[in-house]
Amino acid sequence: MPLPPLPPADGTPAVPLATAVGGPAAAGPPRRFDRERVTLWRVALVAGMAFLYAELIAVIIGMDDILFRQLVALSVGGAGFASIGWLAWRGELFRHPFALWPLVLVAVMLMVSLFSNTIFFPKPLKDWLPAHYVYLPVMQLYILMALRFTDREVIWGLAFAGLVAAVLMVVYRFGLWDVLSHYARRSIFGLDVSRIVIMKHEFFFASLAMFAVLLAPSVPFAGKVAAAVALAVCMALQIEVVQSRQGMLATGVGMLVMLAVDRRSFHTKPFLVRATMLVIGAMVVPLLMWDYVEMLFRDDLLDSRELNVAVRFHTFDHYSHYFHVTHGLGFGMMSATGTRNNVLAESLSMHVNITDLGLYGSFMQFGIVGGSLAVLLTGFVIYYSLRTARRLPQDEAWMPALLGAYFLGWMCVPVQLNAFTMSTSIHFGAFVFYLAWYYRCRGRYEAMAGASRPGAPGAAGALPAAA
Q: Which of 10, 15, 112, 195 could form a disulfide with 332 if both were Cys (CB 3.0 to 4.6 A apart)?
């Protein structure tokens, strides 16, 4: 059955309203917002793109990572521009102007770079403009729109990629594949200890997704057992191998958010079971993470560069200088390869990486306007995800709840997730903003359908048509 057209920007359903809700004009069974069936090639494409951005293939074949990154970005950018042309020709792009927000952010970043590299740090165009290829992965948003991905396909693709990353980290932990040492990083537990992080965002997303599967009522028992095992492995890896304190905190907060969003958590039996598990977890987790707890009592916690806390403060002080020099405009994007004399290259040579600043880095690099837009897009992801989760039936609500809980968890850590201006995470931001756009359309569609069914479950609390 061909897909119904995407819901228009004014909130009109994708199919005739009477047909969508089974009204008098319905000529058959009620039509859904989108496909129910998950197509494996779309799931594989999402996971494959995550592998490309992680440079996993480049590491395996021994290709130069910078050259590989450029080839991937140019390929995705070309396909993205072709998708925009096709969507514009179909009229979809103008019916859904919300999807243009990422392009607005990229345009602001280009303007900041233009002013900065012309006025504050003058240099030829060739020394800074080509470096913006790192933002081409944002174009995959329009590839997903053109190919009509569903939320299931994107979520399962990201979760699968994260589980593959978990398997690779297990392989590294047992010393079975030396090539993975490319992803090794210095551990906070000593200079002679290493940790490894492969596809960080996908890995933590997969960890929370496995928890979400445990809460999903439509998943069979065998699937929940498999999810529980995968979750246990992911949590063990977070503690022993990844060693990201912020990642563990974000995952914990995300789990609490998912429990709060899940309406069944407040029914008597589920409440007792889940409250009991939380109490047990509150007693067991500190024992498992005792090495991390001990660090909180160190006298040099805020000063020790070994613990990475002082590094964050030093990085903030370093880049805030440029924020003041540019009067809040930001220094923009520059070549970070070290072949050009500029802010980024000089900072990296001093082991000061702007990626350590997370969402704060968007303000340092792209000023008040660029940073505010990055915060706005993050807010869109959280708002539309959690709003849609409240509107959908329980067996479907866990997917938008997962996305909203993931981002809300990463907003509750000292260095918040920056998915929209960092070159290392903008591909992930394109995936999640597509989901936010999808849930915005889905929420408006469900609101119109629910409003036409007097007395229907959830109709009284339907989402407003205007967003």
A: 112
Instruction: Break the chain down into helix, strand, coil percent, rounded to 5.
Output: 70, 0, 30
The upper half-sphere exposure of residue 105, i.e. CA atoms within 13 Å in the direction of its Cβ, equals: 29
Q: What is the pTM of this model?
A: 0.86
3-state secondary structure of 196: strand
Q: Taking a C-beta distance cutoff of 8 angstroms, is the pair 117, 332 a contact? A: yes
Measured between alpha carbons, how far is 192 from 177 in angstroms, rounded to an integer? Answer: 19
Specify whether the CB–CB gap between 154 and 46 falls below 8 A: yes
Tokens 């065998």 sit at which residue?
A: 222
Q: Which residue has the tokens 């709003």?
A: 387
* Whole-number Å distance between alpha carbons of 28 and 34: 16
CA distance 203 to 223: 19
Amino acid at 371: G
* Contact (CB, 8 A) for 397 and 456: no
- Distance of CA 438 to CAs 215, 271, 331, 405, Å? 22, 31, 33, 17
Q: What is the DSSP letter of 340?
A: S
